[in-house]
Amino acid sequence: MGLRPPRGSKSLGALLFVHFVLVTLLRARHALAEGCEPVRLEYQAHESCPDSDAFLRAILLRTSRVRPARERMREPARTFHVVITLDARERVRGAFWVTAAQNAEQMSSPRTVESNSCAEVFDALTMFAALSVDPGANAHEQAPGTSAQPTGAPQADQPHVGATDPRTRSAHSSPRVRSERTPAREFSLATGFDLGSMSAGTAKPVLATEPFLETRWQRAIRTGIDLSPTLRVALSTFGGDSSPKAVGYAQLRWTNGRLDACPLALVAVTQLRLRPCLSFSGGVLNASARGIAQPASRHVPWWTLGGALRAEWNPGAFSIELTAGLEMPLQRSQLYFEPSTDVYRPPVAFERITLGGIYHFL
Predict the structure, then answer these.
(1) What angle do CA 224, 225, 229 make, to 5 degrees?
(2) Does 144 sit behind a cis peptide bond, omega within 30 degrees of 0 on the bond before it?
(3) DSSP letter at 140?
């Protein structure tokens, strides 16, 4: 009695259902985070003071109602401006002001502070930043023994009229200034779908479909190398027929789960990234005999290691990717018709090229 052929369409339906459930759960988590106000940071500080990453971390210690704006999505956000300088008397001076999301010329009144210690000025400015978003922010994260003295403290959200722009003042305060703009890394969750061709040693190249979920941690930089760890979990299904023999052929169907790890990205231009990736996959190869008197099916465990180069174009929340890679089976089990007619043997490496779309929802 012959066994039924593998049901590829139902396998794909199950993969898409699992993908839908995971996306729904992650979108629910994203909705919980929407209560946080997105902000950008323009940061200039004397070289002896902490950097902008430390400033953002200090704000998050005071309040949970703020998060970095998503630069990749060009998310509208208010901008925090921070300037810390050292004057001729070795006194540290700091200024903080806010510009509106839609109009950079709409600026709040600056809040200023000075002290003998950069740490004290830094603490006071992080407090100003946290309070501008959350009036109930924790004001006790300031370092003990602080003696910073505010020199002017108008409300941060009141419009500033007729005062000297602190950005102009700071240009003459000290030549030793570190300037940074939104250098913080962004955590991102994304989902997408790849469609492509796989060379699997079958009679014809096979069509591969692959829904996936991805998480990454990257910076919004213009060019250079970004250490941006990216992990992707993908589900794939593809299949085809073996080369026909005199006695028949085999119908083949692979169903796999794959984990891709991409440790860094080469940023060619602002929106184009090239990522080298390593991959590991596991699943099952289902082979069904066709064209013979007593057909049978076999299920073979399937494991591969591989690598790929991925090109991503990220103009916003939606992006496009092109991936080319190789996958090498860890075990090349040979299939045959009894007594000794070879039917299929996997090649040393599978060639894969796919085109896909990604939606970044967090």
Answers:
(1) 145
(2) no
(3) G
